[in-house]
Amino acid sequence: MHPLKKLFGYARHHRRDVWLATLYSVINKFFDILPEVLIGVAVDIVVSGEKSFLARKVLGGFGITDTWHQLLLLGGLNIVIWGGESLFEYLYSLKWRGLAQNLQHELRLDAYQHVQKLEMAYFENQRTGNLMSILNEDVNQMERFLNGGANQIIQVFCSSVMVSAVFFALQPKLALVSLLPVPLILFGTFWFQKRLAPRYSEVREAAGDVSARLNNNLLGLATIKAFATEDFEAEQIRKSSEGYRNANARAIRVSSAITPVIRMAILSGFTATLVYGGYLTLHDQLAVGAYSVLVYLTQRLLWPLTGLADVADMYQRSMAAIDRVMGIVTTPIAIPYEGKHFPSSGVKGDVRFEAVSFAYGERTTLHDIDLTLPAGKTVAFVGSTGSGKSTLIKLLLRFYEPKSGRVLLDGQPIDSLNLQDLRRAIGYVSQDTFLSDANVADNIAYGDPNISRAEVEAAAKAAEAHEFIAKLPQGYDTRIGERGQKLSGGQRQRLALARAILKNPPVLVLDEATSAVDNETEAAIQKSLETVSRGRTTLVIAHRLSTVRHADCIYVMEEGRVVEAGTHEQLLAADRGYAALWRLQTGERAQGTPTAEGLPA
Ligand SMILES: Nc1ncnc2c1ncn2[C@@H]1O[C@H](COP(=O)(O)OP(=O)(O)OP(=O)(O)O)[C@@H](O)[C@H]1O
Q1: What share of the chain is helix, strand, coil (3-state, %, to 5)?
Q2: Residue 406 forms beta bridges with which residues?
Q3: Burial of 119 (0-12, 13-18, 19+ CB in 10 A)
Q4: Do domains 3-329 and 342-421+508-587 have the same CATH topology?
Q5: Residue (of 270, 269, 315) closest to 141 by Cα position
Q6: Beta partners for 407?
Q7: How much is the pLDDT for 140?
Q8: Of 153, 215, 429, 565, which is the most buried if we count CB atoms within 10 A?
Q9: pLDDT band at 293 (very low <50, low <70, confident <90, very high)
Q10: Which of 119, 357, 391 has most ligand 1 atoms within 8 Å of CB, for mutation?
């Protein structure tokens, strides 16, 4: 579908404004060409005097023979025309620009809201910077088009029609000659446009690439500095920026040719009017007044067509941008939000995985997982990195859908539940929690302005965060910088934990939530977690086994399968992978293991 059609489809509820704006543009153009007609009338008055056009009874009107009165009428008409032109210029400007503002606001918001709802898999193939450039620059480009471009297109079209009408009324033969270049100009513009469209698509893609690279590098500045790869990265940016420059150069080569080519076509029309019109006037086939009107009108008709070059340029640029924005808005949401209402206050927290298999791409990450995690229990997942522990949690949060099998919460398949209800029932501390550039208290109370400072502090205490927060320059009011970068890794983890605790969810998921804190703090967090996890299902993923030794059940994962399960004691007694790992981490020796001295312990 054509981008403009998509945009109009999207802006259906603004249809009235579009029509009004178009009407104002048309009326303004009508007033705009009338002064040229008045010049002709003025010439007619001074040349023909009492036999002028105004002295005749045209359409039952005028019939003013007195030249002074004719001039007064001319003056009056002039004032009305200029007044009307100004008024409608104000009105169309107000309408188009208002429309541009409303649409850019709505489209940006809609596109952002839509992006938020797209499934995680979508983002794996997208670059953040590119999405940023669509939500920002491309939406702005559409705004610029509605600000001025739409009106320009309408007015060029209107002046062509209106001026042609005057031409034909005054001197049809001359009209044919002067208007001869118009189809040529229109065809030429169309020809150029067709060549410009793919070039501007390339420009927008290249702009997205630059934006994506800049975004990526600005986020990774610490690594760039640490590896002293400033020159290498600058080279990458240079290449990307050069891609943008080259894409633009290809578009410029075409778009720059439009104006000169159109001017040549106009030249022929203008020369024809001057010479042939003069000839007709000299041979009394055209009045002097009409001749002057036509000479001026040729200017009015043909010169704006040079503006077609700019309009065509802006039009193509905008269509490429609109296509990208509408592409986002119309991307189907693979994991829908709708489903059965399931308020977290009524959730017990019974979690089940039934024969769940999953693959991110081709390679299967989880094989046939069957798990029952009873409400109120604390279960742990351990195992080597990449064994699929986090993936299991992502399936529970429905970031991804299983390839086969199903996940249930309180006996309800999670894909039947309202997605936000499901996620509200789960407090999730991920390996990389998103902290925003707000103060500490707002980060803990995240998204709920009604939470009291006392509640925030209680959660912070449970997460062993209160002490370090109290030492910050402004305590709970200290701003923590973008992504919380003014805090240490362990401090960020504790804020994330406090945030999840404050949510008071029936299911709490801690994915490596205390990996960056020291042993002493971890022990303290463990103690408060014992209180916190009471009465809720708690899923803990940890590499440090001491973190999970008190769990009701520990699952050991290996390459997407659960290979051991049981309490800490049971797993030690089984003396398999878990027991070996425990010994490795704690330095305990198994019975019969030789000591450093070579003697059995
Ligand atoms: N978005 C993704 N796209 C493709 N593959 C992925 C994606 N996320 C994870 N994987 C792969 O899936 C496997 C399991 O990853 P997962 O994050 O579940 O492991 P984990 O057990 O939590 O590891 P860790 O202990 O290191 O956090 C890994 O091999 C990983 O490379």
Answers
A1: 65, 10, 25
A2: 354
A3: middle
A4: no
A5: 315
A6: 353
A7: 92
A8: 429
A9: confident
A10: 391
Return the structure tokens found at 551.
Answer: 């769990």
Percent of the chain surpassing pLDDT 90 = 40
Going from the Cα of 457 to the center of ligand 1, the distance in angstroms, rounded, reads 34
Q: Which fold has domain 342-421+508-587?
A: Rossmann fold (3.40.50)
351-359 and 364-373 beta bridge pairing: antiparallel
Q: How far apart are CA 149 and CA 25, in angstroms?
A: 12
- The helix (H) or strand (E) run that includes residue 224 is helix 221-226
CA 389 to ligand 1 center in whole angstroms: 8
Cα distance between residue 93 and residue 25, in whole Å:
8
Q: What class has domain 3-329?
A: mainly alpha
β-partners of residue 159 are none
Indicate the residue type of 589.
Answer: R
ipTM of the shown complex: 0.95
In angstroms, the Cα distances linking 457 to 130, 477, 478, 525, 529 are 39, 12, 14, 15, 16
C-alpha 561 to ligand 1 mean position (Å):
13
pLDDT at position 413, please?
A: 95
Pocket of ligand 1, beta carbon within 6 A? 124, 360-361, 365, 385-391
Question: Closest residue (by CA) to atom 19 of ligand 1?
Answer: 386
Q: Which atom of ligand 1 is nearest to the CA of 384?
A: 25
In the reported structure, the alpha carbon of residue 391 is separated from the centroid of ligand 1 by a whole-number distance in angstroms of: 6
Amino acid at 168: F
Structure confidence by residue, pLDDT tens digits, 233-285: 999 999 999 999 999 999 899 888 877 887 887 788 788 888 988 998 899 88
Which contiguous run of DSSP H or E holds residue 282? helix 230-282
**What pLDDT score was predicted for residue 59?**
57
Task: Compute the distance from residue 360 Cα to the ligand 1 centre, in Å.
Answer: 9
Q: Where are the domains of the chain?
A: 3-329, 342-421+508-587, 426-504
pLDDT at 61: 53
Neighbour tally for 271: CB within 10 Å: 13
- Residue 447 CA to residue 260 CA, distance in Å, equals 57
Residue 43 pLDDT grade (very low, low, confident, very high; cuts 50, 70, 90): confident
Which tens digits make up the pLDDT trace of 412-449?
999 999 999 999 999 998 888 888 888 999 999 998 88
Q: Torsion angle, CA of 280/283/287/293, rounded to 10 degrees?
A: 30
438 CB-contact burial (10 Å; exposed 0-12 / middle 13-18 / buried 19+) = middle
